[in-house]
Amino acid sequence: MAMAGGFGLGTDESHYVLFSRHLAWGYFDHPPMVAFLAALTTLAGDEVFFVRLGPIICAAITLTMLRFLALALYRDERVAFWAMVLMLFMPYQHLQGVALLPDATLNLFWCGALLAAWVALRDGKWSAWVLLGLSTGGALLSKYHAALLPLCLLGYVLSSPGRRLWLGRIQPYAAGLIALLVFLPNIVWNARHDWVSYAFQLAHGSSGHFSLSKLLAVLGGQMGAWSPVIFGLLFAVFISMVRERPLRDSDRFVLWTSLPIFLFFCGIGTFGKILPHWPAVGWWTGSLGVTAVTLRKASKGDKPGTRWRRWCVTGAIIGFFMTGFLYLALFNPVVGPLYSKARDISISLNRHFPVIRPLEPFKSQNDITNALFGWEEIGKRVEQIRAEMPAPEKTFIFCHRFYPTSQLAVYLHPKTKATTLRNKFNQYRFWFSAEDHRGWDALFVVEDRAFERSKRYRALFQEMDPEPVKIEVFRKGQIAHMMSVFRYYDFKGTYEKK
Questions:
Q1: Does 4 fall in a domain?
Q2: Out of 18-27, 86-95, 325-334, which region has the weakest mean confidence (pLDDT)?
Q3: Is residue 317 part of a domain?
Q4: Do 126 and 238 sit in the same domain of this protein?
Q5: Residue 397 pairs with which residues in a beta bridge?
Q6: Would you call the peptide bond into 246 cis, given omega within 30 degrees of 0 as the criterion?
């Protein structure tokens, strides 16, 4: 809570804030729960703190449910405590604990569904089955990745001789029906919009080809997001569990609700592109597995147990410093100076070894943390330029891609129209009709390859001012953004052609 308002909204966060200003049961790339969450907390104000208050509350509740899940599975307070601590040694978990992302509510409902599933399968209480259905439906309304949850639970039931009897009873199917009813509004929305959201998500990883370099990139992304040693420990635990005979029922539950998540996303990552945080839900039971197996092995006091303890300490230290660097980079522009030193070294090496190519000069875009700063100032400057246009009330704003459009639009006047004009379909096609804005003027706001990209949109207007207005934004004395604002006149009412 102390850091939540200390830096601006990220690219995804800005997009989801705009979702909350256009509430619907679905969006081009996501279901609606993240919009509902932002709409609820921003009733108290539009400040960044209130935007992030929802994810903070969700993270606190999710960690609490992780404790109860650990106690239900292992009946050991040590597993419950150290699993929660383990989550805080992973850099990306800190971002998920404060950033407005669909993962905030996904994690909440996912953990709720796991706890309800275990209690339902163990005790058979109808209340637990109902909670399982409601939680699964909530997870599906949070992120489409939640479709993996029923499959994981089905795998656990099929592999557990003592649980298979539930497949012949009505309770699991009633829970599935409840989940489907909760998710039904999103299905209806997609049916009314040509199934656009499902088609977009299914396209991930379906059109590429296998590549070993892609697999290595996926594994590298996982190591960077969760820290390399902790990620390695997770798979060491999986191997240890698979080899154990007989397999504990709690370990079987952990395996089936964690391992398939990582295998699935690493698999599709070898064909397409995935983001490092997509398998994040696998860590809720994965952390329990790492903690339980480590405590089990370390208690033996033999050499393997000593090695496990040493690897855990090493993982904690590396994770601590990686997380510390994350906070340092958020509040201080450290990437630029580090890059400059690396470039000096590369130039020196190039003098002695010409085969080594020196690094290019540092650009503000090389520091991804700069995306979190300066957009409020950019928004004010853009509004000033819009006010100087011949018809400000009929002047819209557009960017080359939809993410910078969203980062800018959050800070524009509520009545200012913002969009993209690329031929590639995105959420703005639902919010902005090109035909309805025929004859309007426009401002094109761009940072990278400004003149090249400004020419791409010249044909969409009757006239263009070739000289842009420059906007420079500094962050603690270092350049963070160098924006160019091009002025266009008399929009023809069409999108860029392919």
A1: no
A2: 325-334
A3: yes
A4: yes
A5: 418, 443
A6: yes
In a shared domain, residues 355 and 413 = no
Q: Are residues 22 and 169 in the same domain?
A: yes
The dihedral through the CA atoms of 92, 97, 99, 104 has a sign that is positive
Angle at 171 between CA 75 and CA 107, to 5 degrees: 55
Mean predicted confidence (pLDDT) in 144-166:
95
Q: How far is CA 227 from CA 89, 266, 289, in A?
A: 8, 16, 17
Lay out the sheet containing 478-491: strands in order across.
418-420, 395-399, 441-446, 478-491, 461-475
Rounded to whole angstroms, the Cα distance separating 264 from 147 reads 12
- Of the three residues 298, 325, 352, the one that is the final residue of a domain is 325
Residues 285 and 341 both lie in one domain: no
Give the separation between CA 321 and CA 3, rounded to whole angstroms.
Answer: 18
Mapping DSSP to helix (H, G, I), strand (E, B) and coil, where does residue 320 land? helix
- Where in the sequence is the domain holding 21, given as residue range(s)? 11-325
Element (H, E) at 403: helix 402-409
Integer distance in angstroms from the first to the last C-alpha of the chain?
A: 46
User: Is residue 399 domain-resident?
Assistant: yes
**DSSP E strands, 356-432:** 395-399, 418-420
- 3-class DSSP state of 75: coil
- One domain for residues 290 and 399: no
Return the structure tokens found at 111: 């953990």
Amino acid at 433: S
- Per-residue pLDDT reduced to its tens digit, 275-308: 888 999 999 999 999 999 999 988 887 888 888 8
133 and 37 in one domain?
Answer: yes
Mean residue pLDDT of the chain comes to 92
Instruction: Tell me whether residue 497 is in a domain.
Output: no
Residues 345 and 406 grouped into a single domain: no
Give me the pLDDT at residue 66, please. 97
In the numeric block, the tokens 């012949």 are attached to: 168
On whether both 351 and 283 belong to a single domain, the answer is no
Give the total number of structural domains in the chain: 3
Of 282, 322, 270, 286, give the one whose Cα is nearest residue 103.
282
Q: Beta partners for 489?
A: 463
CA–CA dist 165, 477 (Å, integer):
66
> For 4-18, 153-167, 213-227, 361-375, which range has the lowest pLDDT when averaged over its residues?
361-375
Q: How far apart are alpha carbons 89 and 79 in whole angstroms?
A: 15
Q: What is the pTM of this model?
A: 0.91
